TrEMBL record:
This is GTPase Der. Keywords: GTP-binding, Nucleotide-binding, Repeat, Ribosome biogenesis. One of its GO terms (biological process) is ribosome biogenesis. The keyword Signal does not apply. It comes from Sphingobacterium allocomposti. PANTHER family: GTPASE DER (PTHR43834:SF6).
Length: 434
């Protein structure tokens, strides 16, 4: 099950400020380079060891003032349907507005957990003022200041109480693969081509408790579960066109999968939204395969694919050890290559390197290129082991782990990738005291 926390509320109450605080992303840095951050309205977060995805619904409202309120109401309905927990944010400095009341009316009818969050309670004096929000009839009011962070810990304690301590173990151990991407890139076409049926798959209608639909694929020696996303549901009645909705579906499918096939349109290249999904997959430690579709429509020579690859890798750095496949679904070019590659990535994800082999290879490399000494102290790495987990994690035991800097970590990661093949898979490396 995906844990999704949606922040709803009218404009200017402080939704995006809270979002930034909860996700504490490397956002500022990313922003400077590519300007993609403005599009990043959903992001992985963690509190007392529980992982979840936060969505700032404000980021999905576009358009003129008269469509504004309508859009916000739509979002609240979608949040009720799709999110696990809803934070209804209001502003203590303005009190209750008509739109606040309307949103509260909708939320009162929902069975999902809703928390009233009174924001901008920057000092104790304002605590009393927030009492008026009890009038919503939505239970306890949480006073917070998104600007300073005060009160957010208590709120998060309450929020994560809805999430299980540990992912329930799946009985089914087949690889779970999902195809994601913006509208019209070719997701349904690929799915239909793989399943060999030339029609849209009928799926169940939104509102069921299941997070996503899984299609059992078992042909040509490949067996896996294809996890359904928004693209496959176009024929259902729900609001597929609403970007906010399709993002919710994508996040759920992604969290429910082992390998994410991120599909791009060769005519558009990789865009901010794609990069957001890529980073979400990376943060959630999912395997990734990039597919550049509609390759038939691109004028090309022998260098074109290489140039495409270089441009994509610049945008997704530093995690660039990712397979990129150029397909034409309509011409049936390389579509089985996608399946084959996704399965390879899955194998890489669950791979366990034997400790003796890991040490033979890595300790020799490290001996030849030891971490630079810091403050006159030499760092000695003595031993390495792969930790148990659902994606590759390695511990390197050494005398002074605090002196090992990011560049050396990256060096070690690159060597692991060169020697053991973790293509398409995020890996984590820890240096620990021995
Ligand atoms: P959104 O439209 O709901 O996403 O609101 P923003 O996060 O953009 O915030 C709107 C304005 O309120 C900005 O000027 C923020 O700096 C300000 N703001 C947000 N949180 C707080 C807070 O806790 N205290 C105060 N004083 N201002 C805040
Ligand atoms: P989705 O919204 O991502 O599921 O995209 P669809 O599968 O519905 O495809 C959108 C449109 O792109 C349809 O008209 C497809 O026929 C077309 N399309 C899909 N794949 C290709 C391809 O490889 N080449 C070309 N030229 N068109 C494609």
């Amino acid at each position: 099950m995906a844990n999704i926390v949606a922040i709803v509320g009218r404009p200017n109450v402080g939704k995006s400020t809270l979002f930034n605080r909860l996700t504490e992303s490397r956002k500022a840095i990313v922003d400077d380079f590519s300007g993609v951050t403005r599009d990043r309205h959903y992001e992985a977060a963690e509190w007392i060891g529980k992982k979840f995805t936060v969505i700032d619904t404000g980021g999905f409202v576009h358009g003129s003032d008269d469509v504004f309120e309508e859009a916000i109401r739509d979002q609240v309905h979608i949040a009720i349907e799709e999110a696990s927990v809803i934070l209804f944010m209001v502003d203590v400095t303005t009190g209750i507005t008509d739109l606040d009341d309307e949103i509260a009316d909708i939320l009162r009818r929902s069975s999902k957990p809703v928390y009233v969050v009174a924001n901008k309670v920057d000092h104790a004096k304002l605590h009393h003022d927030s009492a008026e929000f009890y009038a919503f009839g939505l239970g306890e009011v949480y006073n917070i200041s998104s600007a300073t962070g005060s009160g957010t810990g208590e709120l998060l304690d309450a929020v994560v109480s809805h999430f299980p301590d540990q992912e329930e173990e799946e009985e089914n151990t087949l690889p779970k693969i999902t195809i994601v991407g913006r509208p019209n890139v070719g997701k349904s076409s690929l799915t239909n081509a793989l399943l060999g049926i030339n029609r849209n798959i009928v799926t169940d209608i939104a509102g069921t408790t299941r997070d996503s639909i899984r299609i059992h694929y078992n042909q040509f020696g490949y067996e896996f579960l294809l996890v359904d996303t928004a693209g496959l549901r176009r024929k259902s009645k729900v609001n597929e066109d609403i970007e906010f909705y399709s993002v919710m579906r994508t996040i759920k499918a992604l969290e429910d999968s082992d390998v994410v096939v991120l599909m791009l349109d060769a005519n558009d290249g990789i865009e901010a939204q794609d990069i957001n999904i890529f980073h979400l997959a990376e943060k959630n430690k999912k395997g990734v395969v990039l597919v550049v579709n509609k390759w038939d429509t691109v004028e090309k020579d022998h260098k074109t694919a290489k140039e495409f690859e270089t441009r994509i890798k610049e945008k997704i750095a530093p995690f660039t050890d990712v397979p990129i496949i150029f397909t034409s679904v309509t011409e049936k070019q390389r579509i089985f290559k996608v399946v084959e590659t996704a399965m390879e990535v899955y194998q890489n994800k669950i791979k366990k390197v034997p400790t003796s082999k890991l040490n033979d290879v890595m300790l020799e490399i490290i001996e030849n290129y030891p971490p630079p000494s810091t403050k006159g102290k030499y760092i000695k790495i003595k031993y390495a082991t792969q930790l148990a987990g659902r994606s590759p994690m390695f511990a390197f035991f050494c005398n002074l782990p605090q002196y090992i800097k990011d560049p050396y970590k990256r060096f070690v990661e690159n060597k692991l990738r060169e020697n053991f093949d973790f293509k398409g898979v995020p890996i984590q490396i820890f240096f620990r005291q021995k």
